[in-house]
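User: Good morning. I'm curious how protoporphyrin IX containing FE would be positioned relative to this chain. Could you predict the structure with it bound?
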Amino acid sequence: MPKKHATRSTTQDASSERKTAQYADQSVMTGTGGEVHQSAGGETPVLTTEQGIPVADDQNSLRIGARGPTALEDFHFREKLFHFDHERIPERVVHARGFGVRGYFENYASLADITKADLFQRAGERTPVFVRFSTVAGNKGSADLARDVRGFAVKFYTKEGNWDIVGNNIPVFFIQDAMKFPDLVHAVKQEPDRGFPQAQTAHDNFWDFISLTPESMHMVMWIMSDRTIPRSFRFMDGFGVHTFRFVNAEGKSTFVKFHWKPKLGLQSVVWNEAVKINGADPDFHRRDLWNAIQMGDYPEWELGLQLFDEAFAEQFAFDVLDATKIIPEEDVPIRRVGRLVLDRCVDNFFAETEQVAFGTLNIVPGIDFSDDPLLQGRNFSYLDTQLKRLGSPNFTHIPVNAPKCPVHHFQQDGHMAMHNPTGRANYEPNSWAGGAGGPRESPEKGFHSYPAAAEGPKLRIRSESFADHYSQARQFYISQTESEQQHIADALTFELSKVETLAIRTRMVSHLLNIDQDLAEHVAYGLRLKEMPNPADAARPTQEHLQASPALSIQLNGPASFTGRKVGALVTDGVNIDILRALKTALKEEGGLLEIVAPYVGGVEASDGSWIAAVQQLQGAPSVLYDAVVLLPSADGVEELGQEPTARDFVADAFAHCKFIGYVDAALPLFSKAGVLDSRDDGCITLEGPEGCAAFVATCRQLRFWAREASVRYGARQGV
Ligand code: HEM
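Assistant: Good morning! Here's the predicted structure, ligand included:
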């Protein structure tokens, strides 16, 4: 019987039927269905399967007949789909959205007097680091400008092992005991029945939990402040949060709190801007860091230490083991001991940013824990979650997690083991001689825990020294400028307006009454509460005598520089080339950037006939993407722009967000369209000649024209 299946001779192989096609710059081969085939040759290697078998056709699976079923024996197709189907690993249970970069830490001087940690021994020594910035609540694909705490985790690859400062951009936390962490995270994430809202605290469950957790009130002030809507990762603080110990060679312990201070200064956006940035560029923060590093504009932070002893801890008004409290810089000044420079983007996002595993338990000789109950719980949690997330106890074999110092131990096997011991000894003690016996402990070099005294009855109890929930919340609030206080009141009003249950809104106001009467009244007014509740019963009365700490304000600690910031220049054909050049020069001298926004991305023809390429098309570049804007249309060009709602928004938003606006007279119709022609103020600056451009850039050092805010703000305070 002849076989039913027609066999194809080699001359009938599909590859012999390819044709050449031209797609603009690309000359390609196409197959019988018009699909594109690109072949190996020259420096282009041959595509293989994971088993190393060369692949002839990566466009078509193996079929029985041109329109028939796919053959099960197609090992290439099977392997490709198999691998793809398993590409994802679980996202982090918190801090899922993050961005990692590499760099180094450099000491200013030896810290041998306070710690024997090897990385701090020698002035000028550099230790490689990996840093991951993150948001806490949102899923991996959420937007960067969520109102949220930012993670600031630093892994130091020291010569004596990996040390991680797994910190945040806020120096306090919501809870005092790690036992409450699952409740906090459940409450903040999407509500379990409906699966939303995404990356937001503005919902009932969060505020229900918070309003029944008075220890969180200090953190509430921080998260409702502009700290949770930073302009860039480059313009925010980092904090180790907990009290740690330094231990020197003599075994003397000093308590330490870690701070990261950005060299570019602090800066945040305003809430209305954050909401719009999330639409215009959900990757705003990661793009900003990526671009800065790609341009060689490496962001830097200084490592600051607050050092104190038992005697200070004893007399300090709060417990240094309570992670809901700070030690004001005015009480214990910050000593700056080195700089963190981030100078390299990752080569592969998954391999490094996704797979990096930080943990508070990763410490090195010379550094130790305190008994902060939150820290103690974290020390358990990170290792536990990473086994689940990375799928194997061998995650230290992944290059981003592997120490850069010699590693010798008897741990073995497990999924994906990459560094496998050789030889016979996989236990100790053993009697195999010399190197054959494997590594041994070292009392001299090894890690010794600080012998802190600890004894007492076994109790489930919260220390009474943790019971003051409002005093530092009040101190934070009174340390803010009036504009920052308004932002806090507005944020609370916004968030609680999204809470459907009136009782929860009211309960929150009852706590605010223990922080600041004025704040509580403004929020109550903004919510239109019919009746003011009584203040919540406080475990300890608010200490109203605590002085303001100016170091806690962002606006009071601005950088007085426009370095690292960006001006968006809205241009049309006929743009005044002299002004454009002068601006570029002034910004370059300041260390800032000018980005051209035009009606068409192809660019515009300038007044001298030269061609100016645009980086952005107007539709895709609202003014929220810039720190300041300049309006440089020509008299003809402005007419076309006037037809564009996005041009009107460009100006109206820049004005409403208190940005500095530089302009030429031809731009006046745009102010008019935006409805702010007669509202122009000292933050709106005409650009005349090179001196005018330099003066504009110098004015931009104030970052925002806050004096305008009262006139453009629509918030809880209006009418009060
Ligand atoms: C001061 C309080 C805390 C801070 C500053 C903090 C900071 C961080 C940071 C920065 C990350 C992201 C790490 C990364 O980029 O890979 C993270 C992840 C995480 N944190 Fe915390 N956290 C705090 C409290 C806690 C507590 C109390 C727990 C549990 C008891 C906890 C459990 C976790 C877990 C499970 C992850 C995910 C880790 C991973 O999958 O790699 N955190 N935390």
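The pocket of protoporphyrin IX containing FE is lined by residues 92-95, 98, 132, 134, 151, 153, 166-168, 173, 178, 181, 241, 323, 356-358, 374, 377-378, 381-382, 385-386, 389 (CB under 6 Å). The longest strand covers residues 335-345.
Let me know if you'd like a different ligand tried.
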